[in-house]
C-alpha cells in the first residue's frame, strides 16, 4: 500500500507539467521540441498494432559493447534469433546502445545500427533503442569484454556511462554529441518505434545522483526533436523525484514491473491517469510470479504494450535469477527470463503457444 501511495503522489506531482518545455539545469535554455500533447501520443499509439516483444541482445553478446563493437557485431545470430521472435508474432524489440561503442567509431557504429535495423525490419519488428543505463557493472571499458561468470545473472552487463561518470557533469560534454549524433541520423526512421533515453536511473545505489543526466538527456533529445516519441521508464516507486521528472518529460509512459497480476493491475490503473499510452518495457520473471500466462493477457486486455526481459538463453545468463546464482552453472529449477533455448526450441511450448495466440498467429 505504501508503494501505491508513493506512486499516486508522484503522478500528482508530475502530470501538471506535461505541456512545459524542458530546460537544462546548466543553461536554463528551453529545448527545441515540447513534450507531445497527450492527444498526439494517443494518436501515435493507435496507429500501431498492439506492441509485444522482448528486450534483445543476441545470445553471443554478454553486454551492449559486445553487441555493437565492430569485432563482435554478429548479424548472422541477430538474423536467426529475430526470426524466432517473428515466428511467435513479436513485433517489437528493446535494444540497448552504448556510448563507448560510438566513441570508438561514430560512423561505423551508426552503420551497424542501420544494419541491425535492416535485419529487424526484414522480420517485421520495430525497435526501441535505449541510450543510458544505471544497471550492473559500473566501469565499462571498450575492447574485449569479460567472459560470463558461471551461473550469475548478467555478470558482464555494463552501465552507461558508468559510475562515477554518470554523476560527473564534466562527462556530459562527451555524451551530448553521442546522443545527438545518433538521434540526428535516425530521427525520421520508421523502423524505430521510440527512444528510451535512460534505463532505470538511480539504480546501483545512485538514486538522485542520476537526476542531472536524466534532465540533460531529455534536453539534448528535444533539441533534435525526433519524429519518434521519447520516454524513460519508471521502475522504483519510492524514487519520487526521479519518477516525477521522467513522467513529466516523457511523450509516452513506460515502466517496469516484475510483480504478480494483482499488483501489476494496480500500477496500470494508476499510470492510466496520465492520459498517455502505456508500454511495459520490462516484465516476466517466472519465480516472482510475473509470467507470460498471467501478465501478458493482462497487458493485452488493458491495451498496454508488453516487452518482456530476454529472448534467447546466452552469454547474459539471465535464465538465472537476480539473487540466486548457481555456481556450478546447472540448470535452474525454473528459468527466470528468456523464451528460447540456444537452438531455437521454446523453453516452454505452452508459453510460445500463448504468445502466438495473443499476437493473432
Automatic annotation (TrEMBL):
One family name in Pfam for this protein: Cellulase
Alphabetical keyword list: Glycosidase, Hydrolase, Signal
Domain called Glycoside hydrolase family: residue spans: 152-309
Residues of the signal peptide: 1-19
The family this protein is said to belong to: Belongs to the glycosyl hydrolase 5 (cellulase A) family.
Keyword hit for Nucleotide-binding: no
Protein name (database record): Glycoside hydrolase family 5 domain-containing protein
InterPro entries in the cross-refs: GH, Glyco_hydro_5
Amino acid at each position: 500500500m505504501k508503494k501505491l501511495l508513493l506512486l499516486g503522489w508522484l503522478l500528482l506531482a508530475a502530470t501538471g507539467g506535461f505541456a512545459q518545455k524542458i530546460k537544462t539545469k546548466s543553461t536554463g535554455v528551453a529545448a527545441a521540441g515540447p513534450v507531445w500533447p497527450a492527444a498526439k501520443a494517443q494518436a501515435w499509439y493507435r496507429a500501431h498494432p498492439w506492441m509485444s516483444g522482448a528486450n534483445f541482445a543476441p545470445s553471443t553478446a554478454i553486454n551492449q559493447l559486445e553487441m555493437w563493437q565492430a569485432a563482435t557485431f554478429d548479424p548472422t545470430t541477430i538474423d536467426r534469433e529475430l526470426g524466432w521472435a517473428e515466428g511467435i508474432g513479436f513485433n517489437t524489440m528493446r535494444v540497448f546502445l552504448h556510448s563507448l561503442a560510438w566513441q570508438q567509431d561514430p560512423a561505423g557504429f551508426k552503420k551497424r545500427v542501420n544494419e541491425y535495423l535492416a535485419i529487424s525490419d526484414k522480420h517485421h519488428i520495430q525497435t526501441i533503442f535505449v541510450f543510458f543505463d544505471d544497471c550492473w557493472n559500473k566501469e565499462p571499458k571498450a575492447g574485449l569484454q569479460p567472459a560470463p561468470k558461471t551461473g550469475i545473472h548478467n555478470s558482464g552487463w555494463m552501465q552507461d556511462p558508468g559510475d562515477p561518470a554518470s554523476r560527473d557533469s564534466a562527462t556530459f560534454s562527451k555524451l551530448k554529441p553521442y546522443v545527438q549524433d545518433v538521434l540526428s541520423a535516425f530521427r525520421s526512421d520508421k523502423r524505430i518505434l521510440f527512444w528510451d533515453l535512460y534505463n532505470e536511473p538511480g539504480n546501483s545505489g545512485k538514486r538522485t545522483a542520476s537526476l542531472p543526466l536524466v534532465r540533460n538527456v531529455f534536453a539534448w533529445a528535444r533539441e533534435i526533436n525526433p519524429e519518434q516519441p521519447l520516454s524513460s521508464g519508471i521502475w522504483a516507486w519510492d524514487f519520487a523525484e526521479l519518477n516525477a521528472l521522467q513522467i513529466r518529460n516523457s511523450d509516452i509512459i513506460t515502466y517496469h514491473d516484475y510483480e504478480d497480476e494483482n499488483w501489476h493491475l494496480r500500477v496500470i490503473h494508476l499510470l492510466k491517469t496520465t492520459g498517455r499510452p502505456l508500454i511495459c518495457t520490462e516484465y516476466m520473471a517466472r519465480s516472482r510470479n510475473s509470467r507470460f500466462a498471467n501478465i501478458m493477457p493482462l497487458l493485452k486486455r488493458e491495451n498496454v504494450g508488453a516487452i518482456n526481459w530476454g529472448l534467447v538463453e546466452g552469454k547474459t545468463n539471465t535464465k538465472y535469477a537476480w539473487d540466486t546464482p548457481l555456481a556450478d552453472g546447472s540448470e535452474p529449477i525454473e528459468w527466470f527470463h528468456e523464451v528460447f533455448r540456444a537452438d531455437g526450441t521454446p523453453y516452454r511450448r505452452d508459453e510460445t503457444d500463448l504468445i502466438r495466440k495473443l499476437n493473432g498467429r
